[in-house]
Each structure stands twice: as C-alpha cells, then as structure tokens.
Amino acid sequence: MSSATAMAHPNVALSKYWGKREGPGNFPAVPSLSVTLDGLSTQAKVTFDEGLPEDVVVINGQVATGLVRERVLRLIDRVRRSAAEDRRVEVVSHNDFPTASGLASSASGFASIALAAASAAKLDWSASVVSDLARRSSGSAARSVFDGYVELEAAPAGAEEELVLAARSVAPVDHWPLVVFVCVTTDRPKAVDSTTGMLETIRRSPYAAGWLEEAPRLHSRLMSALVARDFAATGELAEASFLAMHASAIAAGVLYWNGITLELLGVVRNLRAGGAEVFASVDAGPHVKVFVLESDREKVRSALDSVSGLIRVIEARPGRGAMLLSEPR
Ligand code: PMV
Asked: In the chain, which residue ranges form alpha helices assigned H by DSSP?
C-alpha cells in the first residue's frame, strides 16, 4: 500500500477564468488572477492498494459515481501512467464547506487530490507540475496549488494537449492583508456546473466574443492594481470582471444568482456609497465574496449579517497553497 494526504484551500478569482480553448487538455481561453483563501479547506487522502478489487472515490462520505468519479479517475490515470503504477486506488476527500455550489470546491478538491496522488505514487513533482495536473481537471484548481495571489495565463490557441500550463504565485500571502467574507446563500448544489456553464456561454451567448476580448484587458490592469495595492482600482476591475462574465453567461441562459445574491450586491454598493472600502465578486454559483480592508471589517460584517435569508458568513484571508499533511507511506 502507498498513501499520502494533502490539504488545499479554495481560491476566489479577481479576474475570472470563463471559457476554454477548443480541443483536449482543458486549457483556459482567458488569463485569471486569484487569492487563495484560508478559512475553508479540502483534505484528500489517496491510497494505491494492491488489495483493492476496483477504484473507489469517496467525496464527503459518499461513494462518487458517474461523471464525478470519472473526473477524479482521469487525474489518477495520468498519475498512474507517469509512475507506471498499476494498483487500484482509493481517493477519499472531505470539504469543510458546501460542495459543488460555487464555493470553488473543485479548486481545493482537485488541488489536494493532485498533490496527494503524485506523492502517493512517489513522483517527485514540482508545484508547477502538480498545478498543471490539477488544471487538467479544473482550471481554478491549478491556482489553489500556490500561496497568496496567483495567476493562470491563457493557453495559446491550438495548444497541444501535452503542453504544460501551470499557475504561479505573483504575490505572497502577506502582500496585501485583504479580508474576504464568503457569504453562503444556499447549501444546495448548483444546477449547472462550471464546465457546462462555460461551454454554453461560448456556444450560445451573443456576448461571448465581447467577454473573451475584455477579459485579458481587465486581467492585465488588475495585475498592476494588485502590485500597487490600489484597493479602489482592484475593486472596480474585479467587479467589472465578474459582471462581464455573468452578463455573457446570463445571455446564454446560464443564471447562477438567487435573490440573496442580488440583495448582497446591493448592500455592498450602499456600503461603498457610504465611504467603505469594499467590493464584491461572484463565481459560478449564487454566493457572494466580499473583499474589505481591515479598517472597515466590522462595519461591513454587521451590514452583511443583517441580510435576511443569508445562511452564513465565513471570514477568510489570503492563505497558503496546497500542502502535504502526511509523508507518503
Ligand atoms: O475551475 P472550474 O472549471 O471550476 O471553473 C472556475 C470558474 C470560476 O470559478 C467561475 C472562475 C474562476 O476563475 O475561478
């Protein structure tokens, strides 16, 4: 038996990845910039075991079947090929937050599974190679491998499937001590997963071309705003990114928001009009991530807490990338 356990945090993108290159490899069509978040985490244990009759994937205590199982086993098969490993595998992962609802569980899930799998297979891979492996299952997972503020570039059009495309840390955890309130608006899984949402957007949205053109411009301006720790510019550009992403998706009939999402976005606008340094972001789900500086933390927290129907608020800060919790045995 050979086993390893890893932990990874989700991340939230300031400039959004939305849209894939055509063809195999799961390559992003636009660049993205994210913050890895402490305060939420996934732990994954991967065991290659000669005694197992078949591969087993267990997520949050439930045996995974169908597409979820296939997606995990595709990653494992890549590791098995690289390590000439032919034993069956058991993958057990657990999130301490709602799964598949737009809280980036695929990011922390695939980042932790990739690191644990490479390590259990005794592959001495760098973080970049682990990031590339995670990206093949979930673009955002490539970013959760790294600490702090993380960039994933777009792939060149027509990239060969074997091209290595990894994320990279552009600023450490302590570069900018932002507070992120993750406002959970439902515990239900989302109806449309992000892969389907992206494909539908690119296929059907009259605004897909506009999004694909605008996203890299917003991204490069965000990189400069981040380096300069310019909160107002970061907020304006990050909101422009998520709004343009969702506008293009909504025009294709892909609508992730609920009433509380809109209510929270209104609260953030009112707080800003009242002078608070605050901005919001929404991923492929109905939850709202609210970014604030320490000086306005309490004021913003109490305004968010007053929104009726909100399930809970998780307070997060820039966090570490994926890490091994146990040495491989
Ligand atoms: O990594 P995926 O395939 O789950 O896609 C993530 C898409 C967004 O979360 C909406 C944006 C992002 O950059 O994280």
From this structure: 66-83, 105-120, 127-137, 139-144, 194-204, 208-227, 231-250, 259-273, 297-305
